[in-house]
Design a protein that fits this description.
58% of the residues lie in helices and 13% in strands. It is built from 11 helices and 8 strands.
Length: 359
């Protein structure tokens, strides 16, 4: 049983050993044609090493045996006047080529191990981060709820000082942060979204109307495509809320914020355009990362923690789409690109026929 298992593990090496032995016999049998089996041995050795990257010891031992054997056979043929002395230089040449290939193979193997190690470390870090976000969010919900309850009692009893209102507002902000942390913590789970058929035009109009009553901005509703989208309405609403919140944060009262959409085949584009400040070029590459801030000082002053756009990115990817951004001095345009859009059927209008009553 052990011998059978060893043969299965070393089937490539055993096959190459038999092939090399057959070529050694050919070198001895046909001296004038020995360069052909000679090259077969070295080429097959290189191929075998591509399948099995041996350790240093076995590699050097195999190279020494093959080099000594083939060199000895060529030397014998030289003394028999069937080969020239120049043929002997092929042995160190082939050895050098083999060693160069060994060096490259080992470098590649080391690089692959480094990449695998880095991937494992990043996966472990991501898992710990997700667990921390989930646990911390759950732990924070209870004290926040208790604090809110006590403050609301004080407010109902008539002790609603301005400080109580400020504390309630801050608790509301903390609750929104906790909700977003929990949302990000579950972004990689298979049931993160539950797609249904959504009427795009009606859905976007409802989101727009709700936000136009929240902040004093120049709200504009652009063209919206008619049709339906396979999407999770709650998740999509969260993504649009984050985009609108980001637009409000970086605009002034007189600036315009526009919601518009269009379709390209079965892909729906939802755009939120604002007339706010330009996003710095160095921030564009990480703007959708968690806890990223395009303007740390300004975002911190307004209470942002860099979770909104990360949520947009996670929701877009969960739907099989993505979110992109274009920015200039005139403002920024965030585009949600979502697949599985079905345009509404355009029914041809039938001209009304008027019947004339004879007089």
């Amino acid at each position: 049983m052990r011998a059978t298992a060893w043969l299965r593990r070393r089937s490539v090496e055993v096959g190459w050993g038999l092939f090399a032995a057959a070529n050694v016999v050919a070198m001895v049998r046909w001296e004038s044609w020995e360069t052909i089996p000679f090259h077969f041995i070295w080429v097959s050795l290189t191929l075998v090493y591509g399948f099995r990257v041996w350790r240093t010891g076995p590699t050097l031992a195999t190279l020494s045996v093959v080099g000594a054997m083939t060199g000895a056979l060529i030397t014998v043929d030289i003394y028999h006047d069937t080969q020239e002395w120049g043929e002997l230089f092929e042995v160190p040449l082939m050895s050098a080529m083999f060693l160069a290939m060994v060096w490259h193979a080992r470098r590649r193997q080391q690089a692959l191990r480094a990449v695998e190690q880095l991937a494992d470390e990043r996966a472990s870090l991501l898992e710990r981060q997700e667990r921390f976000l989930h646990d911390a969010s759950h732990e924070l919900r209870t004290p926040v709820t208790i604090a809110r309850g006590h403050l609301e009692v004080l407010q109902r009893l008539g002790a609603g000082a301005p400080e109580v209102d400020v504390a309630l507002d801050e608790l509301g902000r903390i609750e929104r942060i906790i909700q977003r942390l929990l949302l990000l913590a579950t972004a990689d789970e298979p049931d993160f979204i539950a797609p249904v058929e959504v009427d795009v035009e009606q859905f976007l109009e409802e989101v727009f109307i709700r936000w136009s009553e929240v902040a004093a901005r120049g709200w504009r509703l652009g063209d919206l495509p008619g049709g339906s989208l396979q999407a999770d309405p709650e998740a999509l609403r969260n993504a649009l809320d984050a985009l609108f919140e980001n637009a409000v944060k970086y605009t002034q009262d007189s600036d315009a914020i526009q919601l518009r959409g269009y379709a390209r085949g079965t892909e729906l584009m939802i755009e939120v355009a604002d007339e706010g400040c330009e996003i710095p070029s160095e921030a564009l590459g990480r703007i959708f990362d968690r806890f990223a801030r395009a303007d740390p000082a300004r975002t911190r002053a307004q209470g942002g923690v860099g979770l909104g756009l990360a949520i947009v990115d996670a929701i877009a990817k969960a739907h099989g789409g993505r979110c992109t951004v274009r920015t200039s001095e005139a403002g920024s345009i965030f585009t949600l690109r979502l697949p599985r859009f079905r345009p509404a059927e355009v029914r041809p209008r039938v001209a009304a026929r008027s019947s004339l009553t004879p007089s």
